[in-house]
Amino acid sequence: MKGFPPLEILVVAVLFAAALVPLLHLTGEHSASAPVATANTSPAEEHRPQVAGTIRFSHPPTSFTLTPDDQPATSEAEFFWRGHPDGCELHLTASWHAGTPTVAIEITVEPEGIPTRSTTLWADNPLDELVTFSWPAQTVSEGTR
């Protein structure tokens, strides 16, 4: 027995629409991309982009700390903080076991509304480095309006 193609197309379209509704709720445009002013957010804070960062090592360190701008230090591979309108500074300290070869360290920062920035450091044991990323200040204010 042969099916009726217009009916089959209608059934597939209805199933697709039913699956699309939850996806639109998850990925749709919401006010999350707009700056949120809270009671403890000053007007100067509103122009500071939210920054997500990651750090990767070619050889795992025995210990490391990363201090973004004036924020508390972290020892996590992923970190978040509010950056400055014109860039950020990251203070990285790390150490490895004796005999570890030269290590490649990739640091990536993703400021909200600004293209991703990345750099690679090469280090021997131990490391104490200040890494600077910069971006145009007007990009931040335009991207967060």
Explain what the structure shows.
The protein is α+β, with helices and mostly antiparallel strands and 145 residues long. Helices cover 23% and strands 36% of the residues. Strands 3-1-5-6 form a 4-stranded antiparallel beta sheet, with no helix packed on it. A hairpin with a 5-residue loop joins strand 5 and strand 6. The radius of gyration is 23 Å and the shape is elongated.
Key terms:
145 residues, alpha+beta, four-stranded antiparallel β-sheet, three-stranded antiparallel β-sheet, 3 helices, 23% helix, elongated, disordered C terminus
Which helices and strands, and how do they pair?
Layout: H1 5-27, H2 43-46, E1 50-57, E2 63-68, E3 78-82, E4 87-95, E5 103-111, E6 117-123, E7 127-134, H3 137-143
Antiparallel strand pairs: 1-3, 1-5, 2-4, 4-7, 5-6
Mean pLDDT: 79
Give, in spatial order, the strands making up the sheet with the most strands: 3-1-5-6
What is the rounded Rg? Answer: 23 Å
**How many beta-strand segments?**
7
Main beta sheet: strand number and arrangement?
Answer: 4 strands, antiparallel
SSE string: HHEEEEEEEH
What is the SS-derived class? Answer: alpha+beta
Could you list the spans in which at least 5 consecutive residues all have pLDDT below 50?
29-39, 139-145
Tally of alpha and pi helices: 3
Q: How large a portion of the residues is in β-strands, by DSSP E?
A: 35-45%
In percent, how helical is the residue content? 10-25%
Q: What does the overall shape look like? A: elongated
Distance between the termini: 59 Å
